[in-house]
C-alpha cells in the first residue's frame, strides 16, 4: 500500500500514478505547485543507513549547484554517484526536487515518459508528451535528479537540452558513467573516497583493526560500493583474512562484478578488446603503450572508455583503471585467450624504453622520466608476465633498480637484481647493464670491493664485445666505486679514462658529467683552479642537456669553488640556484642550503649560518644522508668558528632555532635575498684582527683570547677572504684604518 501525496489516502499504487490515488489528486497537487501553495516537495530515494563521508566533494558540489543549471556527476560503477547526488539534492534546499530514474529503462522512447512521470505530467491527446512536458515545466521551479543516464545518454541529452532552453527555472543534476554533453553541462568526475575507512566502520558496525580496515579500503580504491560490500563480509570473514583475499575480491563482491559487467556489456567490440588488454597495465598508461597493446589506433576507443568511466584520466595526462575494474578486465582477457600476446607486447615495449641504457653513454631527462612513469608496469611485468628463463628479466630488474635509486629505497630492488644476475648466462644481452647497476648498488651499500669488481667486469665484457659507446659511463661507475674505497688516485684515473672515451665518441653530455665529477675530486684535494676549469666547462652543457638534479649538483660544485676563492656573491648565487632547482626534493637541497649557511657566516651573519647548518645536520641524521668528507669538514669548521665568534647565549639560541626548522622553513630561509651583504665582522673576529694588527702571532692571539691556535687560523683566513686581503700586513693596515 502507498499513501497519496495529495490527500493522504492509502491506496494500491499503479505504475502510472505511483504517488497519487487518482488523477484528481495529481491535478490538485499540480495546481498547488503552480500557484506556489506547496512548500518543499522532495521526491528522493530513501536509505535506511546514514550518508557517510564525501565532505569536501559535497562542499564543492553545493557551490557548483548554486552557479550552474546542469551538473553531471561522472564516475565508474559503484563509485557512489547516486548516493552523493541524493545527498546533494537533499541539502540544496530547492522548493521542489524530483528524481528521474533511467536505470530500469531499455529503450530511448521511454526517457520522455520517465521525465513526465517523475514530475506529474500526463499525456494529452494529439500532443506529443515532450511538448506537454516542456509546457508544464515552463514556469516551474524544480530540481531534477536524473539518475543512471549512461545507456540512454543521447536521448537523455536531447530532453535535458530542451528543458534547459525552454524552462528557465528547471535545474538538472545528473549521474552517469559518461558526460551527457548537454549545453552548459558542468561535469564533476567522482573518484574513490578519501575517507572510505569511516564508511567501512559505519557499515560494518564495528571499528575493528584500523590498519586492516585502511588496507582493505586502499586495495578497494575507496570505491563506496566495494567498501560497503566488504564491510558486510567482515561480519563473517575476519578483517585480516579479508585483506589477504582482496586479490580475488571480484569473486567475493558479486555486486561490484555485476556493476562492472553492465558497463562492459555496453561497449562496442573494439572498445571491449582494448578494455581487456589494458588489464595488464596496473601502473596506468599513455596513448603510446595503449596503442601497442591494442595493435592499432586507440584515441577514439580510449576516449570512449574514459567517457564510460572504465578508465580514469590522471592529472599527468595518463590513464588508469580502478583496481576492481582492472581485475574484471583481466578475467575477460583470459576468457579470450589474449593474455600471452598482450604480455609479450608489453614486455617488448618496456624493454625498448630501457634500451638506451645498453647503447648510449647517458640517459636523457625524458628517458629517465619514462622509466619513472612506467615503474609499476615494469614491476608487474617482472613479477607476472616475463618467463623465469627470459633474459629480459635482467633489463626489467635493472629498470626497477634505476628508479629505486632515485626514490631512495633500493634494497629490495637490488636484491632482486642480484638474484637475476647470478642466474643469468654470461652472454645474456643485458648483462653489462646489470653488472653496472650491481656495482652502483654495492657502492650504495658500502660494499666497495664488490663495487669495483662488478664495474671492472662490466668494462671487460663491454671491451670484448666492442661496445665502446658506453665506456664513458662504465669508467665513471668504476670511478665512483674507487671513490667509495677512498682510492683517490684510481678514482681520478678512471674519470680521466671516462673523459677520453667520451670525447672520442662524441658523448658531450656524458663527458660533462665525468668532468664535473673529476672537478669535485680536484676541489676536495685543494686544486681549486684546475677544478674550476673542468666545472666551468661542464656546466653550460649540463644546463642544456642534463636532468635537473644533475645540474643542481654541478651548480653546487661551482658554488663551492667560488666560496673557496672568496667570491661570496657568486657562491651565494650558485647555492641559491641549486636550492631552487631541488626545492621539490628536500634531501637533494641539503648541500645548497648548507652552502647558503656558509655564505651567511662568511658575510658576518653567524647566527643565521648556524641555524641553517644545524637544521641540515638534523635532517641528515633523520634521513641518513651523510655528507662527503670534504664538505663535512667545511661545515664542521664553520660551526666551530661560529661557536668562538658568538656569545654562548647567541650560539645556543641559534642552535635551538636550527633544530626547530623543518625542510621547507630551512629552504625559505636559505633563499633570503639579504643573505649576502656587505661584510660584517663578528666581535671575536674584530678582537683577533686588532691583536694581529698589534703584531701578535697566531699562537699569542690564541693564548690571549683563550681559544685554540686552529680557531685563530680560521678567523684570520676567513677575515682575509671576507675583506679580499691576501697578507697579514694588509690585514693590519685595514685594522688601523677601520
Automatic annotation (TrEMBL):
Sequence intervals crossing the membrane: none
PROSITE patterns: HTH_LUXR_2 (PS50043)
Domain of life according to the entry: Bacteria
Family matches, as CDD domains: LuxR_C_like
Pfam families assigned to the protein according to its UniProt record, in alphabetical order: AAA_22, GerE
GO MF terms, alphabetically ordered: ATP hydrolysis activity; DNA binding
One Gene Ontology biological process: regulation of DNA-templated transcription
Residues in HTH luxR-type domain copies: 674-738
PANTHER family noted in UniProt: HTH-TYPE TRANSCRIPTIONAL REGULATOR RV0890C-RELATED, REGULATOR-RELATED
Protein name in UniProt: Predicted ATPase
